[in-house]
Amino acid sequence: MREQEWRKELRKQMTARERTQIKRTGMPETDPLERIKNNTEVNRGITAEMAMQEAKRCLDCADPECINGCPVGVDIPTFVKYVEAGEFLKAAISIKEENVFPAVCGRVCPQEVQCESKCIYSVRLKKEAVAIGYLERFVADYQNESASLYVPEIQPSNKVKVAVIGSGPAGLAAAGELVKFGYDVTVFEALHEFGGVLKYGIPEFRLPNKIIDTEIECLKKMGVKMQKNIIAGKTITFSDLEEEGFKAFFIGSGAGLPNFMNIPGENLNGVLSANEYLTRVNLMGAAKPGYDTPVFFGKNVAVIGGGNTAMDSVRTARRLGAERAMIIYRRSFDEMPARKEEIKHAMEEGVEFLNLHTPIEYIAGKNGHVSQIRLQRMRLSEPDESGRKKPVPVENSDYVIDADLVIVSIGVSPNPLVPKNLPSLQVSKWGTIIVNDKEMQSNISGIFAGGDIVRGGATVILAMGDGRKAALGIHKYLNYK
Ligand code: FAD
Ligand code: SF4
Fold first, then answer.
1. Distance (Å) from CA 168 to ligand 1 centroid
2. Atom of ligand 1 at shortest distance to CA of 309?
3. Helices (H), ranges, 85-196
4. Using one digit for the tens of pLDDT, what is the confidence trace for 388-424?
5. Looking at the chain, which residues constitute the CATH 1.10.1060.10 domain(s)?
6. Which of 3.50.50.60, 1.10.10.10, 3.20.20.140, 3.30.2320.30 is the CATH number of 258-411?
7. In this structure, which residue's CA is closest to atom 4 in ligand 2?
8. In this structure, which ligand is nearest to the CA of 121?
9. CATH node for 3-144
10. Which helix (H) or strand (E) holds 347?
11. Is the CB of 463 under 6 A from ligand 2?
């Protein structure tokens, strides 16, 4: 690839020194005071001129480490050089060889700890990395907005039926790959919308629904059948599906079971999980007038946790009118797992961070509704098994704050429904499905799994990578059976 003539010509147009003098492009953003009034996407995307200028910074390294930083191994310098040459569609097609949903990943992937952290600019030149994520988003949007929807080529149907359980990024990626091989693929989704966390979890101000809908439309055009409101293991069993002629299964049912802290008052009205809160707002119209599934808006909203889900919840609460929207996190900013960009955006939107704090009790006001939280101050001691400094309570440091809505966002576990319906399926002590690393096959032949149901809460790109890997495993299984 690197030795193609067009690419050699491009390299000659500027010296490496000139390229390193170009300043990294910024991302245009909606004004914080405006954006907290609605769900408009915060990052506006870069223009073609900005993209081509940014692409010039890439040194087209002989041994590009950025590729090793991408969990699915996208050929980053190739797509970036296509951008520099103004060949945006070729750039998009080149990314899609490894990453089926670049418009999603360009928005939500933590590039700062993946590809961009390995870029020669970050590692050796001690400068800001090439803005790989911004470029990925730009070319994917360019392709989606260009006249016709790009539909990858598929092989003629072999009429072999494969079932995909769950329509999150793992399931959709598996379905897209399987249909390309010619399988008759049906995706079964428990909810009334397809997309998994991309739809019910991540808010529109970070990932607009139309982006996911475009990807789903593309899968449907490729021949993937999609059925909603079907709970595998409940409304339909695996035996039913086998009787219907399905020869292999991919389970991508995610990890949607929220964890709680089991502290006094957790069952009060006004204390709920981030999953419930975000699903009600994003999927069930809870914030819109006229819907019969309202959610309590809250004036003083406390979100417990420091991950992306916590940031999405607190920023949603702010948009729903919270006057005081707080993050309560037991460690410090250094250990906070949320993306840096999300933390920055939350701060700009007026979110308050009570770091080194943990709730120890929720206190009832009128009618059994939460009205206060007893907080305990924390300090950091030696690192624990996760490598992060361990938070320990500061003695006699508790105090009370007002809160009329508490959103608990301290992690999730896999939903046990699917394993329950398949009693011989091997699961770990955390309830995740055990699979072999190479093909994502479980201990039951013909049953494959990937994404959060295997990893117990990870990232979109890892879920998609699993889905693709499993699709190859299923293809091999069905061909060599
Ligand atoms: P999911 O996306 O959870 O999809 C599983 C699907 O299976 C769901 O639609 C569910 O309804 C369906 N299902 C479950 N059981 C059944 C059944 N029995 N029958 C039929 N269907 C079933 N990752 C990032 O990389 N970047 C981010 O910025 C980011 N932000 C996040 C924000 C939030 C609020 C959350 C909750 C997660 C975030 N993540 C982020 C994590 C990421 O979204 C997940 O790792 C990813 O979605 C996992 O994909 P999945 O396909 O395994 O599962
Ligand atoms: Fe370009 Fe950075 Fe990758 Fe080198 S490491 S090829 S400069 S993106």
1. 5
2. 34
3. 88-96, 102-108, 115-118, 120-123, 132-145, 169-180
4. 788 999 999 999 999 999 999 999 999 889 998 999 9
5. 3-144
6. 3.50.50.60
7. 61
8. 2
9. 1.10.1060.10
10. helix 340-348
11. no
Ligand 1 centre from 405 Cα, in Å? 24
Q: Ligand 1: residues within 6 Å at CB? A: 108-109, 165-171, 188-191, 196-197, 201-202, 231-233, 252-254, 256, 278, 308-309, 312, 339, 415, 417-418, 451-453, 458-461, 463
Please name the residue whose Cα sits nearest to atom 1 of ligand 2. 58
Sign of the CA dihedral 326, 331, 335, 337?
A: negative
What's the gap in Å between 393 CA and the centre of ligand 1? 33
Mean pLDDT of the chain: 94
Query: Tokens standing for 373?
Result: 């939280």
Residue 297's pLDDT is: 86
Question: Residues in the chain with pLDDT < 50?
Answer: none
Amino acid at the residue 353 = F
Cα angle 130, 136, 141; round to 5:
140
- Closest-approaching ligand to the CA atom of 22: 2
Cβ(441)–Cβ(409) below 8 Å: no
Every domain range in the chain assigned CATH 3.50.50.60: 161-256+414-480, 258-411
Superfamily assignment of 161-256+414-480 in CATH? FAD/NAD(P)-binding domain (3.50.50.60)
Ligand 2 site, residue 71, Cβ cutoff 6 A: no
Residues 302, 333 contacting (CB under 8 angstroms): no
Residue pointed to by tokens 């390309």? 180
